[in-house]
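Continuing the series of single-chain predictions for the mutant panel. This is the parent chain; the variants come on the following pages.
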Amino acid sequence: MTVSAALRTMLSDAEWLAHRYDPGHDSFHLRAVGRDVRAAVPFLTDEHLGGPGTPMIVRRADCVAALPAPRPLHFLFHSAYCASTMLAQALDRPGVATSLSEPVLLNDMVGWRRRGADPRAHGRVMHDALALLGRGFDPGDAVVVKPSNIFNPLARGALTLRPDARAILLYAPLRPFLLSVARKGMWCRLWCRELLESYLADGFVQLGFEPRDYFRQSDLQVAAVGWLAQQQAFAALAAWAPDRIATLDSETLTADPAAAVFAAARHFGLAADAAHIAAHPALARNSKSGAAFAPGERQRDLAAAEAAYGDEIEQVAGWAAAVAEQAAIPLTLPRALTIA
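Parent structure:
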């Protein structure tokens, strides 16, 4: 297949982010998103990138033919409210790694699969989507992808397609997770219901509940069910590829972010410089708002939520722990990342 020099040049420049996939036309949509823009937004979504933009639409076959040599690609899978955006941003350093925070292209892979995509065709497109995402800005860059947590049902498939990839499974412990949901209010509770709806559609929830049971559960119980489903899947994933996967909890990460980021970089095989990591701007700002982040802010927020919602949290946490015990789900994941 003859591919234009212009397309080869475009795909050699990581600024052209692989943003969407159109299964009807078997094409990728690419839009220009510079490294500085990516560092300034929490997620690579239209909401944060200023609308859909004016993408370049390229046939998948042409993209594949024009792709440069592959780079190392690794994954940061997460279960929400665990400082995953901060960790992804802190791993981004020119000449070391390019990080991608929740690219919509991977959400498209979830939606297409859910709509009944042929599994073999889906696997081929997923392979190509990961290759397109795996383009770093600098010649020495590896790529670290942090998918949205709606992608978690496809995590094992992605790791199978990239056998050299390593992964970190980042999660908030049960009680801090529930406290985060409670303090964020109604919209967060609704989001937890939407996430559970998504996981049920994917067959990702194996906890023994009947469909009608979810209508009888409180908001925080629904949030806990989503957490349990992810925890169950993460435990199985860590057991499946123990040499490639490490786990990390949010409280360890936020207690000493520089040390945790250093350990994460080492796990991914990245050049880790403690001084550069400690000075990274991502460690000093709120990853969502961009405002300056005071040491201990997360802990103070959780303490305030404990004071306001402690009784409800206590009841739901106890209920969820009983469900976890019955389903043999560890509340603390094995294969913890070693932090010096």
